[in-house]
């Protein structure tokens, strides 16, 4: 597919004006070339975006969807262009952090807030990513630091254990097991489990399955979701329970109760990932900031470093 930014700009103008003539005037081009460009775009997409038989001109359902997506891409490109110009002019520095959603309920927001306050000339970008996606992003240069839940053995990426976080069970408030102060995995194994994230794998979901398997248990998986918020919503709806990091309790939601597990040593790590040879000042600064957290534990690099 050979789409260009001008195709997106042309289409968004037509979609906004619902008129080829007004859009052409706005774009400072003649109407026939504009019409041909929109037709080329439709051919590339394999979809009709405009209902040309209606008066006035209307978007098709595919056209309405594409307008939203195209405008988002154009807006994002404008942000990238502006940030690139600032960085090229020496006025700003760009830095990107990837994070697994569940890490956002712990100390990470405090770290991000402090980092932004103490580095006001840095353009900080945040990306929600699984740990697998973070490792790929680090190696490709899309992010500079990642906070995830898995340890990876990779020659290009170094991971440090920030902390081990207890795992708790999230139950509907009216569930028969909430009368207990603690709950064992053996009791939960016969209940419907809401597992997350569904993909990509490996992920925290595999850690949860290993918690059961290492004890000779096989959980009953009711549903799989991609987001911890969705899993909690399904708990509230009474569709099952979820095993979540302790910090997820900070996601206050009516209808759910968090209880500790009676099994010893059921934890999930928070791992700080960075490129192995990244010795930049910002990465070192951020890493030291994380290590200084009161809840931090002795760092542990992959491959015994």
Per-chain topology:
Blueprint: H1 5-17, H2 20-27, H3 31-45, E1 50-51, E2 58-59, H4 61-88, E3 93-99, H5 108-118, E4 122-128, H6 131-140, E5 145-148, E6 157-172, H7 185-188, E7 192-195, H8 204-213, E8 220-224, H9 228-236, E9 242-245, E10 256-260, E11 267-275, H10 281-291
Low-confidence stretches: 296-305
- Give the termini distance in whole angstroms: 45 Å
Share of residues in helices: 25-40%
How would you characterize the largest beta sheet? 7 strands, mixed
- Write down the Rg: 25 Å
Q: Which overall shape is indicated by the principal axes computed on the Cα atoms? A: globular
Number of helical segments? Answer: 10
Order of helices and strands: HHHEEHEHEHEEHEHEHEEEH
- Report the strand count: 11
Strand content: 15-25%
Q: Structural class, please?
A: alpha/beta
What integer is the average pLDDT?
87
Structure description:
The protein is an alpha/beta fold. 39% of the residues lie in helices and 21% in strands. The protein is built from 10 helices and 11 strands. The strands form 3 sheets. Strands 3, 4, 5, 6, 9, 10 and 11 form a 7-stranded mixed sheet that branches. A two-stranded antiparallel ribbon has the order 1-2. It is globular, with a radius of gyration of 25 Å.
Short synopsis of the structure:
The chain has about 300 residues and is of the alpha/beta class.
Give a quick set of tags describing it.
21% strand; two-stranded antiparallel sheet; 305 residues; alpha/beta
